[in-house]
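Below is a filled-in request sheet from our internal design queue. Each sheet records the structural input a requester submitted and the sequence that came back. We keep these sheets so that new team members can see what a complete request looks like end to end.

REQUESTER: design group, bay 2
PRIORITY: normal
MODE: inverse folding
CHAIN LENGTH: 229
BACKBONE (tokenized):
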């Protein structure tokens, strides 16, 4: 670089969806949200809850770009976060050190943050569990990172392979984390009831003894399938 960047670059003001809209997604399954998003939207499979018993959350994204081995942007997010925000941090998938620990989780809980999500690592598992805040990370390591920057807050990031804009909706459960682009929020909410209904109808048939999908059985009888025996 020709010139060192600022230690932090922060955009404090961005549009968040209304709490009433966000509340309509409370308790939604990540799989159902992915179905509403045409099969995509989930962070890569490594990003899982530190405490599976405390995994359900939904909120607006407060985006952090940290880079590897640094959590200054996440710590700064605690200052500007609004209640109900999800602090979501892109750490380049770095696994040698942790950017999230129990002290950060406890402060985020005090701030009213809904969850902390990172595609990097966490530490202090017992303390995070005791904090009672949903924290998602790639894994656990005792190694600690530095807090020196540079970092960004409130800008577009790629976290766990998914593009995230500030104000997008982030939702998690035991299966992982899904991001809903803010522009698609209302259409996802509208589709959710139909997805839940169809899922329940299918599972009701399975509980009654259904062994396969009729559409697949019909395909096997068509000229689109070649049998060699």
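RETURNED SEQUENCE:
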């Amino acid at each position: 670089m020709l010139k060192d960047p600022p230690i932090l670059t922060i955009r404090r003001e961005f549009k968040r969806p209304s709490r009433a809209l966000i509340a309509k997604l409370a308790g939604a399954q990540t799989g159902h949200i992915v179905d509403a998003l045409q099969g995509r939207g989930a962070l890569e499979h490594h990003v899982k809850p530190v405490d599976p018993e405390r995994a359900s959350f939904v909120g607006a994204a407060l985006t952090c770009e940290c880079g590897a081995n640094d959590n200054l942007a996440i710590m700064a997010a605690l200052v500007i976060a609004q209640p109900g925000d999800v602090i979501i941090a892109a750490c380049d998938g770095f696994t040698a050190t942790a950017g999230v620990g129990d002290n950060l989780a406890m402060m985020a809980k005090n701030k009213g943050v809904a969850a902390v999500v990172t595609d990097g690592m966490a530490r202090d598992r017992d303390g995070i569990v005791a904090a009672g805040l949903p924290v998602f990370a790639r894994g656990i390591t005792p190694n600690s990172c530095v807090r020196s920057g540079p970092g960004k807050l409130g800008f577009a990031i790629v976290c766990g392979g998914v593009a995230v804009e500030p104000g997008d909706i982030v939702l998690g459960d035991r299966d992982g984390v899904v991001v809903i682009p803010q522009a698609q929020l209302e259409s996802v909410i509208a589709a959710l009831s139909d997805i839940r209904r169809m899922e329940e109808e299918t599972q009701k048939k399975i509980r009654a003894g259904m062994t396969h999908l009729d559409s697949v059985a019909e395909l096997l009888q068509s000229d689109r399938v070649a049998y060699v025996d």
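SHEET NOTES:
- Residues 8-182 form a domain with the Glucose Oxidase; domain 1 fold (CATH 3.50.30.40).
- The chain has one domain: 8-182.
FILED BY: M.R.
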